[in-house]
Every structure is written in structure tokens, then in C-alpha cells.
Amino acid sequence: DPDSSAKSFAQELLTSNFWQSRREKRPLYLDGAAKGLLANVGMDEVIEALCKGTRSQPCSTGAHRRGEPHLRENVFMAYLDQATLSLTGAEHY
Fold first, then answer.
1. What is the CA radius of gyration of the chain?
2. Cα angle vertex 22, ends 34, 20, to 5°?
3. Would you say the C-alpha torsion 84, 87, 91, 93 has a positive or negative sign?
């Protein structure tokens, strides 16, 4: 039932901790939010998504080091330089 799913989602997410994190403008960490994800997504899928993200327009894969964009020949070279990799819109890949 879509209505009960929406209510359940709201009850789980829209807690006092959620609203406190919004007021403080800090990230909200949900322990166990991705249960089972590791069983369904392997390293091959992550690498494939990062590669596809570099080919999209605008680029969805980014590399940052010490808070600054870290541009290299490819994301793997940036990773070897100890840059943090991020994939925006990962659900599309």
C-alpha cells in the first residue's frame, strides 16, 4: 500500500534527530540505512558506475583532495593520489 509505505518512511526518517540536523546544517547519519547493499553491489559495479560517471555530461564522478577539486588523467590516477572520489546521482548507474 503506497500510503502506508509513505507513512512508514516518514516515521523512520522525519525524527527529532532529523530536524535537529537540519537546524544545525549537519549531515544526518542513519545507522544501517543500507542493510544488504554490500550483498548486492560488488566492486565491479562500483568501478563501472565511476567510469560511466566520467562519461556523462555534466560529469557525475568527482575527485577532491584537501577540499579542492583534484583533476588528473582519470579518476583512478586521482584515487592513487589519495583523492576522495564521489559519484553524484549514483542511482542512475
1. 17
2. 90
3. negative
DSSP 37-92: HHHH--HHHHHHHHHHHHHSSS--EEEEETTEE---SSHHHHHHTTPEEEETTGGG
- Taking a C-beta distance cutoff of 8 angstroms, is the pair 61, 54 a contact? yes
CA distance 2 to 33: 20
What whole-number distance in Å separates Cα of residue 51 and Cα of residue 11? 36
Q: Is 37's pLDDT higher than 80?
A: no
Q: Is the dihedral of CA 84, 88, 49, 76 positive or negative?
A: negative
* C-beta separation of 80 from 59 below 8 A: no
Q: Which amino acid is at 29?
A: Y
Model confidence at 24: pLDDT above 90: yes
What is the pTM for the complete model shown?
Answer: 0.53
